Amino acid sequence: MKVIDGGVTAPIGYQAAGIQAGIKKDKKDMALVYSESPCEAAGVFTRNLVQAAPVKWDRMVVQSGAKCHAVVVNSGVANACTGEEGMGYCKDTCDEAAKVLGIPADSVLVASTGVIGFQLPMDKLLPGISILKDHLGSAREDAHEAATAIMTTDTVPKETAVQVEIGGKTVTVAGMCKGSGMIHPNMCTMLCFLTTDANISKELLQKALSKDVEDTFNMISVDGDTSTNDTVLVLANGQSGCPRIETEGEDYDTFYAAFHQVMETLCKKIAGDGEGCTALFEVKVVGADSREQARTLAKSIVTSSLTKAAIYGHDANWGRILCAMGYSGASFDPEKVDIYFESENGKLKIVENGTATDYSEEKATEILSASAVTAIADVKMGEESATAWGCDLTHEYVSINADYRS
């Protein structure tokens, strides 16, 4: 597997654009991802009962089995809690994109992110589609412009791409995502768009996405809030020329490894860019008797506000970790747990069999002062493990969200 410098235009046959349509003041706010040839499409969506109109729309498109050509994305307004009018705006967007791009209306997917409860300014959005078409390109910068246009409180665009060989052909999997706050997936998080030139069936594409999201986007949290707009969409146009992947086996495994690499990289970029954060916080639970037990424990630790605050303060307050494990709902013996902190500054065992070791507070503070910090909890019950990602909790998080609408 080869990691390359690329975004959604890295696979063969994809173009992208990002522009300012006037939805937001002085920032890019619309993006378009387009494939010259029809794509198999897969998606996973928020489980929040309050679902934005684009979530409902895209679920219908993906489940219909229609081949897809394009994804139109806007930032600034979420098109959530907008009733039938919001659904009508999804249809209007798809109809306009179909007319402008010369593709079927049912081949267009839509996504929105931003403030909940406001209607989309269609007088800006619809003309923006024609502007996007004029800016479409397959260059690296075109992908970067699209990734920038979908940002809200993100501080950096989030992109990645990898290549593998399948059947003697180079296959590329790439993606972009956005997400910084309202991140606590019960599926995935905020918005993520993946493109690939692999020739893979819709059924296996959906299987890969649904399976992998459980170990990637479902394992991150910034603030415990599951968004109304969470969406991950994958397009596969088959342009690599690789043999068609219709059954599980070596080719599928190779594709899945590349797919997982992209998904994990993107979800860590979101966790590490949480609103106001200063550090990526990774939690590994090892020695579990089941994967589900490990996931439950890891997510309980990574979502603990007290633990996140301690990470911000570079405070090795391990009691908060053990406490979060205790209320997770998973069964384990607290008197057998070992806990470690690790970063680029070293690794330190701070708890052995449920009680503190004679560790150095100064060394612990040094380890916790890095920009990426890992907590490892060994429950000594089996061979299963899981990893969750989050970030520290800072004063700035409150400031950002207190002023979000203004």
TrEMBL record:
| Alphabetical list of InterPro entries matching this protein | Arg_biosynth_ArgJ, ArgJ-like_dom_sf, ArgJ_beta_C
- Tell me the Gene Ontology biological-process terms attached to this UniProt entry: L-arginine biosynthetic process; ornithine biosynthetic process
Q: Give the EC number(s) under which this enzyme is classified.
A: 2.3.1.35, 2.3.1.1
Pathway(s) it belongs to: Amino-acid biosynthesis; L-arginine biosynthesis; L-ornithine and N-acetyl-L-glutamate from L-glutamate and N(2)-acetyl-L-ornithine (cyclic): step 1/1; Amino-acid biosynthesis; L-arginine biosynthesis; N(2)-acetyl-L-ornithine from L-glutamate: step 1/4
A GO term, aspect molecular function: L-glutamate N-acetyltransferase activity, acting on acetyl-L-ornithine as donor
Question: What is one term from the GO cellular component aspect held by the record?
Answer: cytoplasm
Q: Which residues are recorded as binding substrate?
A: 152, 178, 189, 275, 401, 406
Keywords noted in UniProt:
Acyltransferase, Amino-acid biosynthesis, Arginine biosynthesis, Autocatalytic cleavage, Cytoplasm, Multifunctional enzyme, Transferase
Q: Name one Pfam family in it.
A: ArgJ
Marked site (Involved in the stabilization of negative charge on the oxyanion by the formation of the oxyanion hole) residue numbers: 113-114
- Keyword Nucleotidyltransferase present in the record's keywords: the answer is no
The record's listing under Gene3D superfamilies reads: arginine biosynthesis bifunctional protein suprefamily, ArgJ beta chain, C-terminal domain, L-amino peptidase D-ALA esterase/amidase
Q: Which residues form the active site?
A: 189 (nucleophile)
Catalysed reaction, written as an equation: N(2)-acetyl-L-ornithine + L-glutamate = N-acetyl-L-glutamate + L-ornithine; L-glutamate + acetyl-CoA = N-acetyl-L-glutamate + CoA + H(+)
- Predominantly, its location class is cytoplasm
Which compartments does it reside in? Cytoplasm
Q: Which HAMAP family match?
A: ArgJ
Q: What does this protein do?
A: Catalyzes two activities which are involved in the cyclic version of arginine biosynthesis: the synthesis of N-acetylglutamate from glutamate and acetyl-CoA as the acetyl donor, and of ornithine by transacetylation between N(2)-acetylornithine and glutamate.
Q: Which PANTHER family match?
A: ARGININE BIOSYNTHESIS BIFUNCTIONAL PROTEIN ARGJ, ARGININE BIOSYNTHESIS BIFUNCTIONAL PROTEIN ARGJ, MITOCHONDRIAL
Q: Which family does it belong to?
A: Belongs to the ArgJ family.
What NCBIfam families is this protein classified in?
ArgJ, PRK05388.1
Subunit structure, interactors included: Heterotetramer of two alpha and two beta chains.
Q: What name goes with this protein?
A: Arginine biosynthesis bifunctional protein ArgJ
Organism in which the protein naturally occurs = Hominifimenecus microfluidus
